[in-house]
Every structure is written in C-alpha cells, then in structure tokens.
UniProtKB/TrEMBL annotation:
GO annotation, biological process: bacterial-type flagellum-dependent swarming motility
Subunit structure comment from the entry: The basal body constitutes a major portion of the flagellar organelle and consists of a number of rings mounted on a central rod.
Annotated ranges, domain Flagellar basal body rod protein N-terminal: 11-39
Function recorded in the entry: Structural component of flagellum, the bacterial motility apparatus. Part of the rod structure of flagellar basal body.
Cellular location(s): Bacterial flagellum basal body
Keywords tagged on the record: Bacterial flagellum, Cell projection, Cilium, Flagellum
Family of this protein: Belongs to the flagella basal body rod proteins family.
Keyword Membrane: no
One GO term describing the cellular component: bacterial-type flagellum basal body, rod
Name of the protein described by the UniProt record: Flagellar basal body rod protein FlgB
Gene name linked to the record: flgB
A Pfam family the protein falls into: Flg_bb_rod
Length: 119
C-alpha cells in the first residue's frame, strides 16, 4: 500500500491556488473602481474547486475564460459595474477563507510530520 501526499492533503492545496487567483480578480475589480466602463469580474469558487477535484486540475483561465461578469445592484452612469462595498466584502471573505485553508493545510503537515517521526 503506497502513500499519496495529494490524498493526505485533501482539497486544501487546490483551494489555496483558487483563493489566490480569486484574490487577483477581486483586487483588479477594486483597483478599477473608478475606471469608466470597467466590468467587475469574479468566478464561482465552489464550481471551480469541484472541477479541479474531479482530476482535471485547475482549469481556471483568469484572462477571461472562466470569469463571469458581476451584476451590479446599482449600475453607474459610466458603465462601471464595480461596487466598492461589495468587492471589499468579497475580498475580506476570500482572505478569511484562504487563512482557513492554510490553517488546515498546516495542521495536515504537522500531523504527517508526527507520523513520520513516529510520535
């Protein structure tokens, strides 16, 4: 019986990669808050994670492929769909979720280190 590090670490490495990509997308939205005509983008984290979990790897294309446009609650006159409060809330939630995945990954590594050390 062999040992698989990817099975031991579960979904957390993929989740961290996706969270990092989503951070870039959300930061881009925030940076372009006052750019006329800028369309806020995002992606469905759960769908992307489920897709990567099926063995296909990360298929997210942040240059346009998998990203969807965010529908604004209050459209602006200049065509910009970034709503700063929404983007900041999404960014903060994404950072918190990143930290949770990182904590789980650290716990997994510590557990594996104990097993290797025979503790």
């Amino acid at each position: 019986m062999g040992f698989s590090l990817s099975q031991a670490l579960s979904v957390h490495p993929e989740a961290l990669k996706l969270r990092a990509e989503r951070t870039k997308v959300l930061a881009s939205n925030i940076a372009n808050e006052s750019t006329p005509g800028y369309q806020a983008r995002d992606f469905d984290f759960r769908s992307a994670l489920a897709e990567s979990d099926t063995g296909g790897g990360l298929l997210l294309q942040t240059d346009g492929g998998e990203l969807a446009y965010r529908t604004p609650n209050h459209p602006s006159r200049d065509g910009n769909t970034v709503e700063l409060g929404v983007e900041q809330a999404e960014f903060a939630q994404n950072v918190a979720d990143f930290q949770v995945s990182l904590t789980f990954l650290n716990m997994k590594y510590k557990g594996l280190a104990k097993v290797i050390a025979g503790q």
